[in-house]
Amino acid sequence: MTLLLNRQNVISLLTMNDAIETVQEAFRQLALGRVTMPQRAVVRIAAHHGVHLAMPAHIGGEAEALAVKVVTVYPDNPVQHKLPTIFGLLVLHDAQTGAPLAVMDAGYLTAVRTGAVSGVATRFLARRNARTVGVFGASVQAETQLMAVCAVRNIKSARVFDTERNRARMFAEELSRRLDIEVLPVNHPREAIVGCDVVAVATSASTPVFDGTWLEPGQHVNAVGSHAPQTRELDTTAVMRSKVIADQVEACLVEAGDLMIPIQEGAITREHLRAGLGEVVAGLKPARESDEEITLFKSVGLALQDAATASVVYRKALEARVGTEFAF
């Protein structure tokens, strides 16, 4: 029998802390060579500004997981159709037999696992005394970015900037209540940089959202919104000034305009990408090396995050007897 899990099932089962721990272990397995994960297949639907992605992965080790996620990203959806930007469907398989264990909604899962990887990056790269976060964007993805940072650091306050001021205000009110910290909307992007220990960038912008000269010594930046070669949220200056850690170097070199464009400009070389996150987690490459360096984590999103997180959701669903069993 296969277990069907809808969005509400996933929301009820998946916590940010669980996601952070399982994603961290998945990245450690990646660095140890125990993950099989081809580059995701990308179909661009230019007429509707959409992207269709297929993302398979197998994670070895004790917490073995095998899954494939199909996800669509349509940035125009919220305004034009009153729909979420991201829709996702994930199939989790038994790695020993190939049998389908579960089919689950992956929209919320995608947001949480993307927040979780930034949580892992923040755990290793941000200063331990980080207390203030600046957030660019006021979407569900921005919510999980702030949630994840708060899960690994003792955050006291946050500031959020969004081009839609009313959306930033609503975000601030909701996250203040949910996280029990002070979250304030700000009117200028610089206000989400100056004095912040961690900066989370999770927008649908195609051009840089702040001036890289505004970054201050010791800050850590998580950049997750842009995942196409021709778009970027960060300018060349921000990248040049930072120690760059990628979720996976190879993936970022073919999908992350934030890094590809500066390389094409000749401003940096691929060696400016100091490591993949898994290498840092496994202790193979250094994390933060001083309180003064600016660290930048660039993520395009990897299938291993989905497989690992889905495995946790499935296990908890069995324990809680949540979901609907069905036979194909």
Structure description:
With 328 residues, the protein is of the alpha/beta class. It folds into 2 domains: 2-110 and 304-326, ornithine cyclodeaminase, domain 1 (2-Layer Sandwich); 126-300, Rossmann fold, CATH 3.40.50. It is 36% helix and 25% strand. Strands 1, 2, 3, 4, 5, 6, 7 and 16 form an 8-stranded mixed β-sheet that branches. An 8-stranded parallel β-sheet has the order 10-9-8-11-12-15-13-14. α2 crosses α11. The mean pLDDT is 96.
* Overall pLDDT: 96
Which fold name is given in CATH as the topology of the largest domain? Rossmann fold
Rough outline: globular
Overall radius of gyration: 19 Å
Contiguous uncertain segments of 5+ residues: none
CATH superfamily of the largest domain: NAD(P)-binding Rossmann-like Domain
Write the layout of secondary structure elements.
Elements: E1 2-5, H1 7-13, H2 16-31, E2 35-36, E3 41-45, E4 50-59, E5 65-73, H3 77-80, E6 86-93, E7 100-105, H4 107-125, E8 132-136, H5 140-152, E9 157-161, H6 165-179, E10 182-185, E11 198-201, E12 220-223, H7 236-240, E13 243-246, H8 249-255, H9 257-265, E14 273-276, H10 277-281, E15 295-298, H11 303-320, E16 324-326
Parallel strand pairs: 1-7, 8-9, 8-11, 9-10, 11-12, 12-15, 13-14, 13-15
Antiparallel strand pairs: 1-16, 2-4, 3-4, 4-5, 5-6, 6-7
